[in-house]
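fwd from M.: "can u put these together and see what the complex looks like"

so here's what she sent:
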Amino acid sequence: MFRNKRGVSIMIGYILLISMAVAISIFVYGWLKTYVPNDLAECPDGTSISIKEANCLGMGENYTLNLTLKNNGRFNIAGYFIHATNESDQELATLDLSSKFIRGGTVLGSSILFEEGDTNAMIPNQEKEIIFEFNSQIYSLEILPIRFQDMENKKRLISCGDAKVREVISCS
Amino acid sequence: MKRGLSPVIATVLLIGIVIMIGVIVFLWFKNMQQETITKLGDTNVELICEEVVFEASYSNGILYILNNGNVPIYDMDLKSTSEGSHETNSMRDLSTSWPSAGLNQGSTFSGGINIEAGTTKIKLIPVLLGSSAKGEKTFVCDERIGYEMDI
């Protein structure tokens, strides 16, 4: 009785197993490939900017802010995002001052670059003066430096979240 | 004399059938899998969620959000928690001043939002826009990526 038991031929069994294994492995490779993290876009440690001087003058609906920024880090900086608070008890600065920019660089979207182009123009220890004009009182400033980084043969603008600076401003 | 298929033809037929079965199994598995959404190249959007960095604050009925990371945030889910219940709404539904393209890097949002009385906490969960085989799709990041605030 046992000699007449029929089953799949060993060769066919191997072919079936190997084919299914190859099919599943191709599928798993395609799916897992998307989970391989690419190089992270981040600023090098040591990127830093500081507000050397901030003079805000004006009253009513006319204010002028003269700002002197200094690169006090170890890497060049391309520009920055600048926001202000327009309420004294406001925690987070959300008023975008890039649209109020007058002199001292060039505007790119909602950021301000120190020079036109895609270069990190502000070298360490360099200072830059910038002027803004706006029509409401501000209480503090937040500046977030940005850099151009080479990624996958392209220049990408990266914000340096760890290097954000904040300063309380008094407009008189 | 018993007649049958030549061994060569039989082997070719078997291999052909096996390859066909392998392709069918592959396509079946592919359809079962949740559609992969990618962003910023071919990286899975779940990994990109880990790179989202933003700050938020809420006072006097106004919500302030600043995207100080490098990942554009298309939308935010606002989960408000009160005693014994919670509710989740999209910022695009809650506020008409949410930017249509979302919050790019360095962008800010400030706008009044109505929060139900009794709400003790709100949590902002980023929603990203990615690409899939069927076009652009949104993806809600995991709640642990969210930013929680006490009210």
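replying to her w this: The CA atoms of residues 15 and 21 of chain B lie 10 Å apart.
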